Structures are given as structure tokens and as C-alpha cells.
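User: For my dataset I need records formatted as: sequence, then C-alpha cells, nothing else. Please produce one.
Assistant:
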Amino acid sequence: MPIKISEIAKKINAVVIGNKNIKISSIASFTANKTYSKKNNPVIVFISKYDIDENKTPKNTTFLLNKTVYEKFKQPDKFNFLISEDTKLSFALLTNLFKEKTTTPKYQILHPNSYKLLVGHNVSIGLNFKYGSNCLIEDNVTIGDDVKIENNVIIHHGTSIGNNVTIRSGTIIGSEGFGNVKSNDSSWRHITHLGNVILKNNIDIGSNCCIDRATIDSTIINSGVIIDNLVHIAHNVIIGENTAIAAKVGIAGSCIIGKRNMIGGMVGIVDHIKTVDDVTISATSTVIKDLKEPGSYTGIMPISKHTSWKRIAFWITKLDKILKK
């Protein structure tokens, strides 16, 4: 339901500059904003720095930003603005205003001699669909042909699944992402994740995995990916084609993993990391920087105070040059 921008401003501790009566129906990321503009729907876009082309930005855009970024706009009269002193906290409050309401799925039996299946509204399921016991599919889910979900699988609302996909027991697709902002009183405010998960074709996902939906756009697992048990893939992550991920891997938010990567067991990848195609990461490694060249990588360090660890890591990268000297 559209909300007047003046009402939004009060609820997220922001000040309106522009048309206070405009009604907002959704939030968009800046890269996806062109899609919304075709429908001529006013949207809010959160930006933390000025890196836009104002001439190519739709007029129906309202920007959530701080005063410093606002002052860099050359055509401020073209847009609407929500000015906040704490934009991250305001964004967290904003997402909660647009949280999607889901219905309570009802039991259905899709095939004779099958288990009952909880299915929500507006669900599309292709041919040769197989499922185990105690499975749940929420609203607005699309499932292609030759898909199999085993026992206790949950498919959350808005998920899109391609053809020839297997999801093994206990796995959750489209769960709420772990995005939180600390408020002034040191309590945590959760960022509601409004996006979805897209699983493309020929994917095999192991047991007890968790793939979080995106904050606004999509978490994407591309075709040919195989995932072992107990893997967590966070919000906004994109996994490239034919990548293999071993057990107990954790990939933090907004990482982009290249094609044909092989990620060993218990690897941890911090947020916003990018890897190129044809990368192999050894088991138990921790990835803290982009991997920009194909090849094998290993990074294992004992835990220590962060300031000490930074000094140690710096000198380790210089050891070969020191030895030559």
C-alpha cells in the first residue's frame, strides 16, 4: 500500500525536501531503479555516496541520504529527498514499513500416495515435481520442471527455482537475511529483507543449508552449482555457474563468486568480496580481500587481537621480498 512521503519521514527520523504529498509504493536499489521507472511508480533509493548520473535517473526517484551527499546534487529540483543524520538506521526503519505480508499456507496433496504439502497463494509448480514430508512453500513461489525437495524443506515467499534442481532435507531457501543496525540506545534494529532468491537450472543443494533472500534485489545461485551440507549463503550473494561449495562454508552478504570456483570445507568469506572465474580456495581459509586472478588460494591465520593481526598480515605479504634482500 502506497505511503505518503511525509508520513515515512516521521517514522524514519528524516526531513523531506521536495514534494511532501507524493506516495511511495516500494524501495529500490539504484541499479534496479530503471525497472520501477518503466511502471512510473515512485520509489525510494538509499545512497551513501554521490555516484549517480542525474540525467539518466528517473524523476520519480526519492533519495534517502545524508546532508553531505545531498549538497552534491546538481539538479536537486528534479528529485525528492529524505535527509537523515543516521541513514543506515533510517533505512532499517524504512524496510519495516514495506514488509510483505504472507498468508498461512494450506495443506495440499499434489500427487496420489504423496505426503501432504503446505502451499501458499500464487504458487506455480512445473512437471515431475517430487517432495518429502513436512515441506512448506510460501506465497508467490515459482518452481520449474524436474525439481525435487526432500523432507523438512522450506521455500520462502518470492523464491524462483529453475529446472532440474534438488534441495535436500532441512534446507531453507529465502530466509530472512542477517542485516541489523545499532540505534542510539545500542539496541539493534533489523533490516527487513524485501528481495528474493533465484535458483537457476541444474543445481544440487545439500542438507541443512540456508540461503538468505536479498535486501531488495535477488540472491542468485546460477546454473550448475553444487552445494554440500551445512552451507550458509547470505543476502545479495551471487554464485557463478558450475561452482562447487563444500560443507560448513559461510559466505557473507553481497559477495560475488565467479564461475567454476571450488570452495573447500569451512571456508569463511567476508562481506562484499569478489572472486574471478576458476578460483580454488583451500579448506578452512578465510577470504578477506578480492581474488582477482584465477588459481589456488590458501589463507589460515591464528586468531589474535585485530591490531596485531593487521601488522602480522602486512609482513607476511612482504616476506618474499625481505628474503630476496
